[in-house]
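Worked Example 4.2. Read the sequence first, then its structure tokens.
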Amino acid sequence: MLKHPAFFALLIQIAALLITVCFVVGQTAVELSLFEWSMAQGILAGTISYLLRMPAWWTPMHVFFVPLIIFTLAQDIAPIWFLLLFLGLLLTYGKSFKTQVPLYLSSEKANQVLATLLPKNRQFSFIDLGSGCGGLLSNLSAKKRNGLFYGIESAPIPFLISKIRSLFNPGCTISWGDFWQQDFSQYDVVYAYLSPVPMMSLWQKAKKEMRPGSLLISNTFMIPGVAPDKAIKLDDFSGSTLYLWKI
């Protein structure tokens, strides 16, 4: 549990808050407003995060977390809006808190390059791990009629969108679930656009289950310590790269 970044970040916030409260209670020389003290707590939390070498993007999150809470509470916003926002995020991102895999959407350039990598004259099967709103599968199935395209998604709203799209596209099959429970031996091409966190586990699963000659493709994220057989830079908005491993 301690290894989970979000839980570790929570401990940092609690530690910074306790230190700030102890300082406020133990001295009378410095008088600041509640918001100013929250900024002090945020700066302390951000400093601790930096010193403990958490990923760089955690530092601004720590700095502004409590100040934004104080600022938001001061706006006298009806609680129902917070509930609706929370539900919206939960339905959109699903178990991202647990999996540490956010919702990424493949670019049009990724669609174009992937189409050139797929077999031309024989039938094949393709699965998108965490297929999001289904745009990639819809585009590829329209271009590659000799393919069977599968997607698996666990976030409710993206799954619903992709499922509706698949009803008008007989070449796509969208399933609700966890791709870690999927048998990769059924597919000729496995495509992933995940995050750095699960890549080594994905490689272990791919080596164990994928058939010889099949292809593992990762958008943006490499497998630590495993050189790809091919890397294709994409001229898209995020400067992504497709990494290919032939099993």
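Now turn to a second chain, presented in exactly the same format:
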Amino acid sequence: MRLAKEGIPFVVASDVLALAAVVFAATRPSLWLWLLAAVLLIVAGWVVYFFRDPEREGDRGDRLVISPADGKIVMITEVDEPAFIRGRAIRISVFMNIFSVHVNRYPVSGTVEYVQYNPGKFLNAAAEKSSLDNEQMSVGIESPLGRIVVRQIAGLIARRIVTYSRHGDLAAQGARFGIIRFGSRVDIFVPTTCGVRVHVGQQASAGLTILAEG
């Protein structure tokens, strides 16, 4: 199984801790120590699962907007996006829970023209206010469809946003551009001329699900 490189330290640490607990329980037989070892083994397995980074091959095209994140579509609304689009846009919000793949992918191909980090709070990422108040990283892409913004938003548990994008980079649709550790949300802003292809409550897969089409 391919793992996200950002998760390797967590995987190693959880594996070492679980192994130490097993060894300790084996040398000092105790039901409670074995229960602790079993819990740590489960946690170690979950950490590997959390940081999985599967390959994704799906539909691609200049008129398509692909989901940048795994998770549940929690909001679709028309809003103002003043930072990069500088006008009205359709915002599609994808909420990632602790069982989702957390590697984020470019929704369109183009050129990265805007990268902006904003510090903030760590509210529940599913809430409306988190789009404005939470810590976040925005990446603006000049694409064949026009200007697109992808916004990684930290959540109640997530405290680390990783973004590889730099101004002037070439974005390749479906390619990895970052990761958010331990549950969060990704908003994508698309032109109002796009037709939305998903609905609230639907599960989306990064690099596979078509969110909108121009």
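Notes for the reader: The domain at 64-213 is CATH 2.70.70 (Glucose Permease (Domain IIA)). The mean pLDDT is 87.
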